[in-house]
Structure formats: C-alpha cells, structure tokens
Amino acid sequence: MNTPAPSFAAGLEGVIACATRLSDVDGTNGKLTFAGYNAVDLAEKKTIEEVWFLLHYNRLPTDAELDAFKAKVEKLGRPNAQEIRIMKGLRAGEPLSAFRSILSAIASQRGYKPWLNRDVAEVEEELLALSALAPAIVEVIHTGKAPLKKRNNLGYAERYLWGILGHKPKKEARQAVETYLILTMDHGLNASTFAGRVCASTGADVGAAITAAIGTLSGPLHGGAPGPVLDMLDSIGSVDKAKDWVKDQLTAKRRIMGFGHRVYRTDDPRALTLKRVAEKQKGPRIELARAVEHEVLSALDAHQKAKAAAGTPVRALRVNVEFWTAVALEHAGIPRELYSSTFCTSRIIGWSEHIREQLKDNKLFRPLSHYSGEPAQPLV
Ligand SMILES: CC(C)(COP(=O)(O)OP(=O)(O)OC[C@H]1O[C@@H](n2cnc3c(N)ncnc32)[C@H](O)[C@@H]1OP(=O)(O)O)[C@@H](O)C(=O)NCCC(=O)NCCS
User: Averaged over 254-267, what is the pLDDT?
Assistant: First the structure.
C-alpha cells in the first residue's frame, strides 16, 4: 500500500520560491510593476534601453548614461565573423529551436564557464552580451545572411524590426514592437524565468541557464501561443463563423490559445495595452480579432458558470497577452514563425537580470517529491 500523498502544490501554484526586485505581477488587481514603475507607463513612454537600464541598475538613466548604455549594447550586439558562421550553420528548422541551438553554441564557443567561484562582474558582462546578441540571432535565422549594417544610433526595437523586414520600419510598426518588447521583458517567476534560475542555481554557465529558459518557450502554454492564435484566426476566417467555432472547441474540450493565465484573475494589463496598440494600427485583422475575443470571452464565461453551478471550483478566464500580441506583431510585419523568437529577444533581458539576482544570493533549488511508486521489495 502506498502512503497517502502529502498535500503539495501542483505546478508550484501559489508557492513563493524566490525574492526579486525586478517585477511584481499583481494578478488580483491586474497590475504589473517593473522595479517600482507601472510597466504599462514604461511601455508607452520609454524605450527598451531605458527599461533595460532600469532593470539592470534599479533606476532610470540620465541622458548621458542612456547614450553610453545604448552604445554598449549596440556594440555587444554585433556578432563576429565566426559567430555569423555558427548562426548560418544552425539556422535550419523551427526558428525558436535554431535560436536555442545558436545561443548555446555561441556561449560555448566564447568559452563561458560555470559562474561559481568566478568574478561576478565578468559573468554579468556575459549575460549582457548574450541579451544584446538576440536581435542579430533572429535576423540571421530569418534571412540566412549576415546582419545588415545599420546606423549606430538606432534603438534596439528599430534595429530588430529593420533586420527582419530588410528595410527601415515605419514609425508605427517600430512603436508597436517597442511597446511589446518592453511589456514582455519580465514577469515574475514564470516558467522560463524559473527554469533559468534553477539552472543558474547549480553554478552552471550563463549560456546553459539561458538555453534552459528558452527551452520552456517551445510549449504553447508559455510564450508559444501567438503563432497558434493567428492559425486560429485563419481557421475561423470571418466574423460570422466565430461563435460556432468557439462553441465547437469548448465542446471538444480544446484550449483556446490566447486566453487564461495562471496568475491574472482579471484583465492582463499587457493584453489591454497591446489591444490598444493593435487598434491604433488599424490592420486587416482587427475586426475579426475583436469578434473572436468577444465570442471566446462570453463562451468561456458561460462554460465557467455552468461548471460552478455543478459545484466545480472555477476561476475567471480572460484574454491574455498572447492574443493581442499576435495581432500587433502581424500588423507590424513580423512573420508568425518568428513570434516565439521575438518574445525571446525581450524576455532574455528579464532572464539575465533574474540570473544576476540568483548568483548574488544563491541557494540551490532542490524541492522534494512524494514517492508514489511501489514499496521496496526484495530483488530476486
Ligand atoms: C495559460 C494556462 C496554461 C494557465 O493555466 P492554469 O492557470 O494552470 O489553469 P489550468 O491549466 O489548470 O486550467 C484550469 C481550467 O481552465 C480551463 N482553461 C484554462 N485556459 C483555457 C483556455 N484557454 N481555453 C479553454 N479552457 C481553458 C482548463 O481547461 C481547466 O478546466 P478543467 O478544470 O475543467 O480541466 C491556460 O490558461 C492555457 O492553457 N491557456 C491557453 C494557452 C495560452 O494562451 N498560453 C499563453 C499564456 S500567457
């Protein structure tokens, strides 16, 4: 007879596993804070480099500091000839897998070593360098060519979009991508950040820790939903078909991509902001996306009410950041197969800052498990 399972938190739901000064996700009130500032305000008024500086130094930069920081990350973001060869050699296949393999190979080729017992400042530079390199990696994966030579003083978002589109992006597209990249830079102890911190907690090299974090994004439950959201909009096709489509999905007990969240019990502030961005873009998908959002929300609401009436505990299911991300990024001209890699270029900044926190106050992650197997028996 197995012993009864002690209570444990499946999926570590509700468990606080570390302290961070980087971001606070208030799921009850729908508020997201980055290092003491409302993330939506930052996304609407600041640049990526300013918010990156804030997460890195815990304060906003002066003009001179910002210029120096921009110049530094721009320089760190230029791969050398050997790294471009690595990128070209490993770019085949699904872009996120290629991104993971390229980043891992470059960290290895650069000789990044386990961080334990090393100079912390040196390890922090390695983290900054990997984050800065992300746009070039996505560009080479997409084009198969060396990154375009762009003006030195371009911002991170403009450089990123330019590399993908192959031409100077329009201001509105650049702003949409900048808002998205800022809003998704950090988000508490989500699955990828946790994976990165767990890996770093062993003293592993930072290339391994970032690679572990990227691995989690290959699943659509975290970070991988925007591409499937567009597939869903494609298969619905027109506003009049939205209602029946949603009903069929729920009857078949399928998950609807871009809805639900582990932490938010009310509107996700990032989704609301990106919806405003998408509405401002006035792209061809907006009417269909609005109709689908409306139908899914009312169907999920009815579904949850029916479950509650039958005595099952339920939670509110709302639209999440990935639904409106899909629409905003599509209107900005980013192909859907690059959405997860685009997410990487923003969240790698959050991962790196979390890993810095981990290595400054490290405790190996080592939870326990309840044994539910057979009792020990003599080996015959
Ligand atoms: C994000 C997500 C994994 C969070 O899940 P969670 O808080 O751990 O909740 P669970 O997976 O335990 O689901 C709880 C219930 O809500 C339902 N549910 C949650 N999200 C749903 C969705 N998008 N569509 C339909 N039902 C959903 C589940 O089916 C489950 O119902 P059940 O108890 O009858 O089985 C989940 O909402 C999801 O799968 N969403 C779709 C993928 C997505 O958009 N991912 C991006 C997240 S930013």
Answer: 93
Q: Is the CB of 320 under 6 A from ligand 1?
A: yes
| Per-residue pLDDT reduced to its tens digit, 150-203 | 776 788 999 999 999 999 999 999 999 999 999 999 999 999 999 999 999 999
Q: Where are the alpha helices (DSSP H) in 166-268?
A: 171-183, 191-200, 206-216, 226-236, 242-251
Distance between CA 112 and CA 200 in Å, rounded? 13
What confidence score (pLDDT) does residue 231 get?
95
Domains of the chain are 20-217+336-360 (1.10.580.10), 226-330 (1.10.230.10)
The residue annotated as part of the active site, out of 56, 142, 187, 261, is 261
- Measured in Å, residue 169 CA sits from the centre of ligand 1 at 36
pLDDT over 70, % of the chain: 99
220 lines ligand 1 (CB under 6 A): yes
pTM: 0.94
Distance from Cα 260 to the centre of ligand 1, integer Å: 5
Output the pLDDT for position 74.
Answer: 93
Tell me the best of 221, 301, 339 to mutate to test the pocket of ligand 1, counting ligand atoms within 8 Å of each CB and taking the most.
221
Task: Decide: 257 in ligand 1 pocket, CB within 6 A.
Answer: yes
| Helix, strand, coil tally for the chain in percent (to 5) | 60, 5, 40
Q: Is 222 annotated as catalytic? A: no
261 is catalytic: yes
Is there an atom of ligand 1 within 6 Å of 261 CB?
yes
Residue 319, φ and ψ in degrees, nearest 5: -70, 145
What's the pLDDT tens digit per position in 264-315? 999 999 999 999 999 999 899 999 999 999 999 999 999 889 989 999 988 8
| Contact criterion met (CB below 8 Å) for 205 and 112 | yes
